[in-house]
Design a protein that fits this description.
Low-confidence stretches: none
Strand order of the largest sheet: 1-2
Largest sheet: 2 strands, antiparallel
Distance between the termini: 68 Å
Shape: elongated
Structural class: mainly alpha
Mean pLDDT: 82
Number of helices: 6
Number of strands: 2
Order of helices and strands: HHHHHEEH
Number of domains: 2
Helix content: 55-70%
């Protein structure tokens, strides 16, 4: 018990405000695993909830700020690029939610007769913008409408 007490006193005496920031970042970053574990247990399957990605970004940014202010190069490198895949996953989730909401709205409409701007029957929904596509508008096997396909082709060729 005396050893724990001495450790606690040393920790308190040698801990700066920035160390508290670093501990907070680690705690937030660690909490994402608790959130994922609880969500998976509730669904009885492995799931990654949206909160996981927000906690990942927040924890990574706090740890990066700590690493930058304390000039700890290994930690700076470790947290410098973490937010890129976390942010990308959020963009993918938001895009899917937008498309799902659009599709749900279409299913709930009682008077809805799915037709494209041409008046042809709808065969697909664009995975990028959520627009309705008929057989003429839909790009085979690409999942995107002609406008989104053209826009991405211009970006690639530029």
């Amino acid at each position: 018990m005396d050893l724990l007490w001495r450790f606690w006193n040393e920790l308190r005496a040698n801990t700066s405000w920035w160390d508290v920031v670093g501990y907070t970042g680690q705690l937030v970053f660690f909490s994402r695993f608790i959130v994922q574990w609880i969500a998976s247990e509730r669904r009885k399957e492995s799931v990654v909830p949206v909160a996981f990605w927000y906690l990942s970004i927040i924890g990574s940014l706090i740890c990066l700020v700590y690493a930058l202010t304390t000039f700890r190069i290994p930690f700076i490198i470790a947290y410098l690029f973490n937010c890129i895949p976390y942010g990308r996953n959020l963009v993918l989730i938001w895009r899917k939610q937008k498309i799902d909401a659009h599709a749900k709205k279409l299913r709930l409409s009682k008077e809805f007769s799915p037709t494209c701007d041409h008046g042809d029957p709808v065969v697909a929904i664009c995975t990028k913008c959520g627009e309705l596509q008929c057989a003429t508008c839909a790009r085979p096997r690409s999942g995107v409408c002609e406008a989104c396909f053209s826009a991405s082709a211009k970006t690639v060729s530029a």
